[in-house]
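In this section we walk through a basic example: taking a raw amino acid sequence and producing a predicted 3D structure, encoded as discrete structure tokens. The instruction is simple. Fold the sequence below.
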Amino acid sequence: MTKNTKKLAMVLVLALMTVVMAACGSNSADKKEDKAGTGEGLKIAIVTSPSGVDDGSFNEDNYNGILNFIKNNPTATVKSVKEPTGDPAAAVQAVADIVADYDVIVTPGFQFAGVSSIAVENPDKIFIMNDTEPAPVDGQTDFDNVYAMNFAEQESGFFAGMAAALETKTNKVAVVNGIAYPSNVNYQFGFESGVNYANKVYGKNVEVVELSGYAGTDVTGANVGGNYAGSFADEATGKVIGNALIKQGVDIMFVAAGGTGNGVFTAVKEAKGDVKVVGVDVDQYDDGANGSKNIVLTSGVKFMGMNIEKALNSVADGTFAGGNVVLHADTDSTGFIKEEGRHQLSEDTLNKLNEAYELVKDGTIVPASNFNEHTPEKFPGL
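The resulting token sequence is shown next.
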């Protein structure tokens, strides 16, 4: 073989290797482009806790964010999957069972933290987590194909606590929770912070009532008190707790308990006298209808659907980036319902809440949360 022939052969080999490498390297990129770019035909799944996507609260708001995305991307589809136990291992398995069939999987709930292991095994799939951070995998905590959003529930809880403390007639209020996951404890501590703020700043003397036997234990094993049903799908226990609190004189309850909260709502609707609830996660005013009256004072909310839709839009336009974020009032992601006709707050209470909102937004007030090292009795701004 002549020198020129050898040189030509080498060029041909290098060219062939370049083509092969380009093909291999573009495989995952092409897959990513298939599910990004325009959002055409994007296949989305949402895997939820036992209360499902029609729980009127947490899961449903996440689902509505997907539905809003589909309105603008009509060739995209969504499949909802209800994991019936709420067990973290079962939750991860439920995702593993369907991962091959979808482009994007949305997992609302702390029990889905372990889905990160599935994300590592399926780099061409996108995972949108809400209410948790991905569990570490071999020390890795950030993943290119996982967007994990958490909300500062303590801020929404703070407004709920302020509203309850400013509006109570009996000076006894309470918070009812499902399971002491961090998000639920954030709501509880935020609520207690809001009550303490109203007591100190506005001269109130309001007690947060806790029932013996229903104290919560958080993910570190710490006793956090409160009124925990132990489930997000136990209406019967929710009603028992609601009735017990009413019997103790509580006239406003912040209900952060998923489907269990429906039982609390029932107890309040059946109660004699003027008893109200503060809704959670979403605007629950419609759920408060009780004949010609309504039992919902306002709702402490986190705007999850809006942020789920934003994440899906980033997938559709090709700008998706993985990461772990905490969303606060400064992005209008936490707050309370103040639209006319959707609350029963007095003008004075509404003004006080609006003033406090600005202080939370600029960081003057930092309510206590499960892990921010503040307590409901001592936090910045109190």
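Looking at the output, two observations stand out. The two ends are 87 Å apart (CA to CA). The mean pLDDT is 90. In the next section we compare this with other chains.
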